[in-house]
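WARN retry 2 of 3 for item q-0093 after timeout on previous attempt; input resubmitted unchanged.
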Amino acid sequence: MKGKIAEIKQNAIEEIANVKDLAQLNEKRVKYLGKKGELTALLRGMKDLSSEQRPIIGNLVNVVKEELENLIKKKEIDFKKREINESLEKEKIDITLPSTKIKRGSKHPVNRIIEEIEDLFVSMGYDVCTGPELETDEYCFERLNLPKGHPARDMQDSFYITEEYLLRTQTSAVQARTMVANKEKTPIREITAGKTYRREDDATHSHQFGQIEGLVIDYKENNISLADLKGTLEVFVRKVIGESCKLRFRPSYFPFTEPSYEVDVSCFKCGGKGCNLCKQTGWIEVLGCGMVHPNVLKINGYDPEKFGGFAFGTGVDRLAMFKYGIPDMRYLYANDVRFLSQFDRKDED
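OK item q-0093 returned
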C-alpha cells in the first residue's frame, strides 16, 4: 500500500509539472484529488486493512494529498499571473499616440452671465433669493403697487393660468416675497435671477427670458440714495460688459420705484460713435432702476418713514447678447450644440 501511494505521488508530481494551462491543471486535480480520484480510491480501500495499518496509511495518504493540493495551488497562481501579464501586454496603451478628443458640455451663455453677476453681488454682501415661476397676482402686481385695473399692467402681456395665478412677468415678485418673509423687518440686500414670461417673440424679445433684479432696503439714517444706486450699477455694468462702459440715467416710470430711471450704457461696439447696434445713438438701454416706492414698502410691512432703498432690474438674455455679440435672442433657446460650444473660447479670449 505504501508503494502504491509513493507511485501515485510521483506520477502526480510529474504530470502537474508538465501541464500547460489551467484546464489541464484542473484535469489533474480531478484525477488525483477528486471524488473518484486515485487517492480517494485508496482511502476507500482501507476497509480491508488491519486496525493497526489504517491510521498509518490514512495519515500517509493525507500528507500526500496536502502536498499535491499545495503544488496544484502554486501552479494555479503561476498560470493566473501569466494570464494577467499577457493581458496587460496586449492592452498596453501607447501614451505617445495622439489622444482622442473627448466632447464635453459647455455652460449656456445665460447661465454664465447669471453666475458671474451672482458672484459679484455676493462679494458685495448681497443674498441670492429665489421664488416660484408660477406666481399669484398679489405678488406679481398688487404688492408692487400695481392694483387690479392699474393701466401699467397693460405694459406686460401676461400668461394667466387662472384669474389668480399667472407665469410671472418679472422677478420683482421675489422682492415682495423677501420683504414679506422678513418678519423682523431688518435691512435687506438681495439679488434674484430667474425666468420670466411675456407674450413677446422677435429678434430682441422672447416669450421666455431671464431677469436679474436687486433690492436694497436700509434704515433712513443710513442715507441710501441715488448715489449708492449709481455706484452699484457702475460696478455691475463694467464688470459684466466692460470697464470702458459709461452710464447714462434717463427719467422714466415704474410703478414700484419713485423716482425711476432707465439706464443706458455707451455702445461697446462703436465706443459711443454710433453704429447699427446702437441705432446711431451711441447708447444702448440695459436696465431700469429707482428708489423703492413708499407704497411698496408700506404694502410689504416696512414703515416708509423709517426705511428706504433702491431696486434695479435687467434682462439677462440681453446682457448675454451684448457681452458675446449674439445678434438674435432666439439663438439662446434653439438648443444648437454648435452655438453653445463656442462660449468657452469666447470667455478665454
